[in-house]
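Assess this:
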Amino acid sequence: MLLTNLTEVTTEETQETLEALGGFFHNLNLRTLLTIGLLIVGCLVVMKIVLRLLDRTFRRLELERGLCTFLHAALRVVLWLVTVCIVLGYIGVPMTSLVALVGVIGLAVSLAIQGTLSNLAGGIQVLVSKPFKAGDYVEAGGVSGTVKEVGLAYTKLATVDNKVISVPNGQISGEKIINYTTADQRRVDLTFNASYDDPPQKVIETIRQVVGAHPQALFTPEPFIRVNAYKDSSVEYVVRVWCATADYWPLYHDLLEQVKEAFDKNGIQMPYSHLNVHVVERKEEKG
């Protein structure tokens, strides 16, 4: 139904436009050509001035380069459409017919590239809100990686195994975004299990010595080491230590390795899940 209506409107408006153009060429003369030429030149001058002012505004606002390029190109297209409308209006083409024709064509194109427009809108949203920039390690659109490039339609992420994934911006803008590198500091959260036979104060002091000896651990805020839970076969201890963002993973893995070594050195057991089976011998009753 919609396609039929669009076809009818397009046919009517096209016919009116062709009739107006036919009348123009029938009465064409030198004066008319000169006037059209002056109109085009004037529009081009105005276009150049407007685009320069726009670029100057972008530099003051310090917008992303990709967004500036898109807005510059979009405004250029709009100015060209205005120029064409001015010239066709002088020729005698009914503006209502021209606007209706452009609207129908624009609607048909937008329906054909709906997915691309969604990614484009998402790209504009990402570039304006700036949730991340090139070089940040993020989790966006279900993918984790280092941002290599923020484009209008896609954002390129480099994964830890050196794969480059292009994620549609429409998908990124519609989901949560986690930026791991925006802040200067991050907190390392770890848990360790020790036996019920080991005194909690001994376990806490052993972990504290390991944390205090690590050069990448920060002491403002102060490290937090306490009993976190009592499990079936062990006591769980939670460790929260702050560090510089760049030192997160080295500190994370170092603490895992060094705490285990310290436990072994101080005779602290780290229980693991196991099952004890007790066999009971049943004596037969004598008659």
User: Anything to note?
Assistant: Strands lie at 137-140, 143-150, 154-158, 164-168, 177-179, 185-194, 224-230, 235-244. The domain at 185-265 is CATH 3.30.70.100 (Alpha-Beta Plaits). The longest strand covers residues 185-194.
